Amino acid sequence: MQDFIRDMSDFHLDVLREVSNIGAGNAATALSRLLGKPVDMRVNRVLSLPFNDITEYVGGAENLVATVFSRIEGDIAGNMLFVMGAAEGRALVRDVTGESGESEELSDMAQSVLQEVGNILSGSYLTALSDFTGFDLRTSVPSLCVDMAGAILSFGLMETGKSSDFAILIDGEISPGVEIGNEKVQGATGHIFLLPDPEAFSRIFFALGVHRYGSH
Amino acid sequence: MAVIKVGIADSNIAKAPDSICTLGLGSCVGVTLFDDVRKIAGMVHVMLPSTELARTSTYKKAKFADSGVPELVDMLVQAGASRTRLKAKMAGGARMFSFEDSAKSIGLRNIEACKEALRKLGIPLVAEDTGGSHGRTIEAFPDTGVLEVRTVSKPIIRI
Predict the structure, then answer these.
(1) How many CA atoms lie within 13 A of A60 on its CB side?
(2) For domain A10-207, is the CATH number 3.40.1550.10?
(3) pLDDT tens track for A188-203
(4) Nearest C-alpha of chain A: how many angstroms from B60?
(5) Which domain holds residue B40?
(6) Nearest neighbour of A149 by CB, restricted to B7, B24, B99
């Protein structure tokens, strides 16, 4: 049987990459303002992946990650996840607060900093998406969870799972630059994943006027 | 001794001395069935409670509690297990994010649906580690009938 998520055309995947480009670019600008230093948007990937490969993509099902999850509601529905490794999360908290937490665990304060950063990033991503598509979009109150990647991401895949065994992962990777001496090195990297509900895709393509192109 | 891996919305069986595991259960539920005499175990990683939620005419049975659990029983019987000897242990069904309504969380619905599926099949649920708000990795040992549950921040438990 045809699975429209697995079988999405390259043309439409390219359109989603452009959507991600605009959203993640806006989020990177917002983070840059918050940190008062440049933030790179490094990679934009749009991949149609089987569920198990999605957890591999973020380092395996048991990899410890900090994730801020928001549910998108309005003209389209879906999930937005800001995912970082636990160590990267601590580095980001250091960048924001200027304090170096020594403990391995994320303190309550560190968790609320991450939650707020995730909130700002999701909000700015969504604003760009809304401007681009003309959609009326809002998010639920974002919620932070620090746990195994598999346990967190499988929750985000629940809606998609009703229609498919694949999900389209729209990944915008952002990272603040860190200067050591004169050298600029890679800072903490975070992923902003957009996981639209299956019904959202045709609406996105329709809104952008490309629903007739690139079909099979 | 091999460790057989079960992915999301998948199922498999293992015979002693091999073990069988699934990684990173959140709101999903891992149902494990044991035949202690034949030393065979089966595991299914259930993602959603009911096939009524499926929006397509064909789907992976292991994805849903009401189709995945009976399918696992059939797999075990085909592999030589006795249907009447089977007993179940399960784990998972957490509520991962605070915004989820605890009374209607998908984790809770998955737990209830797996229990209902077992009841219909007449298989006793002898142990469980379900609910809460944390992820779990589980490994079942057909040799001893033990289900090991590992989490990020708590000691390993064996049920």
Answers:
(1) 7
(2) yes
(3) 688 889 999 988 988 9
(4) 8
(5) 3-158
(6) B24
